[in-house]
From TrEMBL:
Organism: Desulfuromonas thiophila
Positions of the Flagellar motor switch protein FliN-like C-terminal domain: 255-324
CDD domains reported for this sequence: FliM (cd17908)
Protein name: Flagellar motor switch protein FliM
GO CC field: bacterial-type flagellum basal body; plasma membrane
Function text: FliM is one of three proteins (FliG, FliN, FliM) that forms the rotor-mounted switch complex (C ring), located at the base of the basal body. This complex interacts with the CheY and CheZ chemotaxis proteins, in addition to contacting components of the motor that determine the direction of flagellar rotation.
Record InterPro entries: CheC-like_sf (IPR028976), Flag_FliM (IPR001689), FliN-like_C (IPR001543), SpoA-like_sf (IPR036429)
Keyword Transmembrane included in the entry's annotation: no
UniProt-listed SUPFAM superfamilies: CheC-like (SSF103039), Surface presentation of antigens (SPOA) (SSF101801)
Localization, UniProt: Bacterial flagellum basal body; Cell membrane
Pfam families: FliM, FliMN_C
Family: Belongs to the FliM family.
Keywords: Bacterial flagellum, Cell membrane, Cell projection, Chemotaxis, Cilium, Flagellar rotation, Flagellum, Membrane
The keyword Membrane is annotated on this UniProt entry: yes
């Protein structure tokens, strides 16, 4: 049986509660606070951040495209042109447009039969250098002095022909894995007007260094990753080491035959001392000790490969191949 408090004990108890010397209710036990856990977002749809661009042997197609377009631009501008692949990366379409610099030229390409369109982008130095040369100018005027203005309608029409030829070269590069029929849809200078895919679409961006004479620029080939992914098995079978040996040899043979080499006709060769060379003056005659009808040697990359006869054709100097020299040389 519980003990009943007296009036004095009740009064002391109430006084203790009012003074705070006795808690009026049980305090809840405090639990140590847990540090907030860091949560990383993970997309089940997009592949960025998961190893970057992964498409086997696709770099072979890009290198083939670089060689093809270097010949195309070189023939058009009549200058020495080099195109080298710099990088392949993945980014979403929104970030790609934000990266676009002022006065870049964006060509929208149809990629039939692949789904969705792609882009071929020339930066300002590359665009202006081509226009300057094709209008009869020289790249010397553009060194460090790229115009700070958008291209005119006439200049864009000139570049439109370059983009048309680029589509043809892209089709040739893809011919070993897909009968691509790319075509130029339109040319834009404002990235906001280029809405070929949703903003979060993963894009493959291949960047090339282009050098015309002594002026360099950047070219970007942009294609949706979803459009390229169906080519994965074809890239493995047609270009990979697991594919047919004959197809691989044929592909390499075709590419090797397109490599440019330097051919030089050597009339004669003499030896002079350093003193003789220092004493040379305008008007001096050097005897070569060869007859007028003596054959000359054709050097391919510095190696003698053919014997030829020098002469004239259509008012210009020319050589006629007579025979092939030792094949082992």
């Amino acid at each position: 049986m519980e003990r009943i408090l007296s009036k004095e004990e009740i009064a002391e108890l109430l006084s203790a509660v009012r003074d705070g010397s006795l808690a009026s209710e049980l305090e809840e036990p405090q639990t140590p606070e847990k540090s907030p856990r860091r949560v990383n977002s993970f997309s089940l749809v997009q592949s960025k951040g998961q190893g970057g661009f992964r498409l086997p042997n696709f770099d072979i197609l890009l290198d083939s495209f670089a060689r093809n377009i270097s010949f195309s631009i070189s023939n058009r501008v009549q200058r020495a042109v080099s195109v080298l692949r710099e990088s392949i990366r993945m980014t979403d379409f929104e970030n790609l447009l934000l990266e676009c610099q002022k006065h870049e030229v964006l060509a929208i390409l149809g990629l039939d039969p692949l789904k969705r369109n792609g882009l071929l982008i020339f930066d300002a130095p590359l665009a202006f250098s081509q226009v300057e040369i094709m209008l009869g100018g020289t790249t010397e005027l553009l060194k460090g002095k790229i115009p700070e203005r958008p291209l005119t309608a006439i200049e864009l029409n000139i570049l439109r022909q370059v983009f048309h030829e680029s589509c043809f070269e892209l089709n040739k590069a893809f011919s070993s894995v897909e009968e691509l029929a790319s075509n130029l849809v339109r040319v834009e200078t404002n990235p906001r007007l280029v809405n070929i895919v949703p903003a979060d679409t993963d894009m493959m961006v291949a960047t090339f260094n282009v050098k015309i004479d002594k002026v360099g620029g950047k070219m970007h080939l942009v294609m949706p990753y979803a459009s390229l992914d169906p080519l994965r098995e074809k890239l493995k079978s047609e270009l990979g080491v697991t594919g047919s040996g004959g197809q691989w040899i044929g592909y390499l043979s075709t590419e090797l035959q397109q490599i440019p080499v330097t051919v030089m006709a050597q009339l004669a060769q003499i030896s002079l001392s350093v003193r003789d060379i220092l004493d040379l003056r305008v008007g001096d005659i050097l005897p070569l000790d060869v007859a007028l009808d003596s054959p000359v040697r054709l050097l391919v990359e510095g190696k003698a490969k053919f014997s030829a006869l020098a002469g004239l054709r259509d008012g210009k100097k020319a050589v006629r191949v007579l025979e092939q020299l030792d094949k082992r040389r």
